[in-house]
Structure formats: structure tokens, C-alpha cells
């Protein structure tokens, strides 16, 4: 959840989401949950009072079980209340951290340190699309970037940590996953993720982007920032 980074896990048997009671929660379970979604650094886990959350009546409560193979599952017991009244808040990685002094808008030049999650997706040495670093192995981008002739995975490269485009020392792509319901004509479900062949190292110019929470909503006329190496004005270079 956006508020307090509260952890929700999906309960397939009831087609619903479950808050995780803090009872019996520990650091090993926190690491296992984060590893399930591709984060392998040390997570930060806290507690949040269930009574402080809005619309908690729409959620169930459960515990996380850590299996011998390191994977996780929900305790079969799904509860309507949490005995301790405390639920788990979990941050799997420090994200959204930049070194900008102020916002830069309107097509102005900037540096990669201001938006260190920005990457260039290149096909045979040519910049095709931008993307965002999710973690050391995964990149978020648009599904339409892989239309037409741009489908050969081993010809894709990901350039990261640079302000000026270069073709030196990029990351190689192992696999591309496009949304199964992507429709090119409508650009609906226009999302894809790339798995890299090797881990990229975090630095001042290489940081993961923050993903929106389950309950995240943007009010009308919210200010947004777009970054990349594309056009600086509509219809012009």
C-alpha cells in the first residue's frame, strides 16, 4: 500500500488481498518476501497499527510461512482480525533517491544523477526507448518498444548510469516479458520488463525507481516529470 509501505499478499483461494500480522514476523521472512519479487538487498521492516489504516475492513489478515526452500506462502489460516493489532510495513530497497537540487522541467538539460533510474534501451547500437531501473536485475519499459523488427533479444543492450548516450559497457538482456494483454494499436497494457544477464551495481548515478503502491491514486492536474533522450518539444526534435 502507498501509505506506510504496508505489505499486502494476494490470496488466490479467495481472490483477495491480505494484510500481514506482525506476530511471528522476523527479518528472514522479510528477506524471503523481497526475494520473491527480485530484491536481494537487506530490507527495512517496520510495524503499522491496523487501526490507522483506512478501509481495513476490505482486507483479511494472515501470517507468512517461510518454507525450507526459501520460498514463502501465506498461513492457511486467514483471519478477520489481527491479534496484536500491528501489521507489517516493508521496504525492499531504497528507491527514488536522486541528487537533484531542484526540479528540472520544460525540456531542459539535466544529468543522470538527478534521475539515476533512467536507462537507454538500445537495439544494435541505436537508442530505441527509455526505461527505469527496478532493481539490479530488472528494467521497466513499454511493450511497444519491441514491435516490428526489434524482437531479437540478444541484440538489445541497456545503457545505464550515463548522461550522454554511449554504446560502451552496456548491460546485456537475457529475456523480455511483454504484458500478455498488450494491444499495439490502442497502446493498452503498454508495459514490459527486461531481465538482465548480470547484476548492475548501485551508485550515485544508478538507483532503482519507486513503484506506486496498491492504493496509489493521482488527483487531476498532478505535476509529472518525463525524462529521457527523446524530443524536448511536441512534434519537434
From TrEMBL:
Domain SRCR: 1-38
Parts forming coiled coils: none
BP-aspect Gene Ontology terms: proteolysis
Entry's Gene Ontology cellular component terms: membrane
Gene Ontology terms, MF aspect: serine-type endopeptidase activity
Sorted UniProt keywords: Disulfide bond, Hydrolase, Protease, Serine protease
Ranges where the Peptidase S1 domain occurs: 104-237
InterPro entries xrefs: Peptidase_S1_PA, Peptidase_S1_PA_chymotrypsin, Peptidase_S1A, SRCR, SRCR-like_dom_sf, Trypsin_dom, TRYPSIN_HIS
SUPFAM superfamilies referenced in this protein's UniProt entry, alphabetically: SRCR-like, Trypsin-like serine proteases
PROSITE patterns assigned: SRCR_2 (PS50287), TRYPSIN_DOM (PS50240), TRYPSIN_HIS (PS00134)
Protein's name according to its UniProt entry: Uncharacterized protein
Species in which this protein is naturally found: Hymenochirus boettgeri (Congo dwarf clawed frog)
Amino acid at each position: 500500500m502507498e501509505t506506510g509501505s504496508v505489505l499486502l499478499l494476494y490470496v488466490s483461494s479467495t481472490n483477495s488481498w491480505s494484510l500481514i500480522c506482525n506476530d511471528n514476523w522476523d527479518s528472514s521472512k522479510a528477506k524471503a518476501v523481497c526475494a520473491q519479487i527480485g530484491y536481494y538487498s537487506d530490507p527495512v521492516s517496520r510495524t503499522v497499527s491496523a487501526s490507522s489504516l483506512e478501509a481495513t475492513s476490505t482486507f483479511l489478515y494472515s501470517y507468512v510461512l517461510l518454507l525450507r526452500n526459501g520460498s514463502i506462502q501465506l498461513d492457511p489460516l486467514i483471519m478477520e482480525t489481527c491479534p496484536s493489532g500491528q501489521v507489517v510495513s516493508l521496504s525492499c530497497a531504497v528507491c527514488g533517491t536522486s541528487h537533484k537540487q531542484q526540479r528540472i522541467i520544460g525540456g531542459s538539460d539535466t544529468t543522470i544523477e538527478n534521475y539515476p533510474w533512467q536507462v537507454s534501451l538500445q537495439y544494435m547500437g541505436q537508442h530505441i526507448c527509455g526505461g527505469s531501473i527496478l532493481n539490479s536485475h530488472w528494467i521497466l519499459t513499454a511493450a511497444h518498444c519491441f514491435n516490428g523488427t526489434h524482437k531479437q533479444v540478444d541484440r538489445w543492450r541497456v545503457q545505464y548510469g550515463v548522461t550522454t548516450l554511449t554504446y560502451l559497457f552496456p548491460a546485456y538482456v537475457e529475456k523480455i516479458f511483454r504484458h500478455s494483454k498488450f494491444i499495439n494499436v490502442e497502446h493498452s497494457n503498454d508495459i514490459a520488463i527486461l531481465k538482465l544477464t548480470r547484476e548492475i551495481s548501485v551508485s550515485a548515478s544508478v538507483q532503482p525507481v519507486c513503484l506506486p503502491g496498491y492504493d496509489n491514486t493521482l488527483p487531476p492536474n498532478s505535476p509529472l516529470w518525463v525524462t529521457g533522450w527523446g524530443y524536448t518539444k511536441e512534434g519537434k526534435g
